């Protein structure tokens, strides 16, 4: 095994469909160094979301290995996986999935409170991130009072709150117009760089993918240079 931050080897996953078994992932292979930003592109239905669900330990592969900081996420039990998910991995989706009743700062603080941090410390960390994402003036707003781009930036802040080593982003700008998408992406990239978090970002935007450190395409079940 290499000393990469994150390494995926021989990852396979299929689903049983009415017409027979569909092999979606047929041996994914890649590794990421600390702070590296990888874009994954590929046609709809190629298995990009399935890949992120598996590497985030939300779904099990049929075979293959995943190592984060040298530890196998496959070999460990469910409780240990949940611990890794909460402390080491941050998720961003196409929809913000913020809690509608909570303000921006409360949404960002929540994962830290769950980990046992005091309210004062959690809110200090949340405010630091919101300021960095140009959202200081929106901290007390509930999601319904935020624009699409603002809500997505709050979701980015929440994903980074616990200082994860790895961010998994599934079309994080997919619901935004091109200009707003560019702004959200730039801030995501800057913040992950500062926090030294590695990123796997699935996107349909070639322009954004080109601005990442590396681009791979998921095609016919494997990752190929794009
Ligand atoms: P993408 O994100 O690249 O659009 P997905 O990972 O969502 O692709 O889906 C890849 C393929 O796997 C699709 O054909 C989808 O229908 C199928 N698939 C995904 N999840 C399941 C599931 N839980 N059960 C059966 N088929 C699934
Ligand atoms: Mg998808």
Automatic annotation (TrEMBL):
ABC transporter domain segment(s): 6-226
Keywords for this protein: ATP-binding, Hydrolase, Lipoprotein, Nucleotide-binding, Transport
InterPro entries from the UniProt entry: AAA+_ATPase (IPR003593), ABC_transporter-like_ATP-bd (IPR003439), ABC_transporter-like_CS (IPR017871), ABC_transpr_LolD-like (IPR015854), MacB-like_ATP-bd (IPR017911), P-loop_NTPase (IPR027417)
Gene Ontology CC terms: membrane protein complex; plasma membrane
CDD domains: ABC_MJ0796_LolCDE_FtsE
Any one GO MF annotation of this record: transmembrane transporter activity
Enzyme class: hydrolase
EC number: 3.6.3.-
PANTHER family, per the entry: IMPORT ATP-BINDING PROTEIN, LIPOPROTEIN-RELEASING SYSTEM ATP-BINDING PROTEIN LOLD
Membership in a protein family: Belongs to the ABC transporter superfamily. Macrolide exporter (TC 3.A.1.122) family.
Protein name: Lipoprotein-releasing system ATP-binding protein
Taxonomic source organism: Mariprofundus ferrinatatus
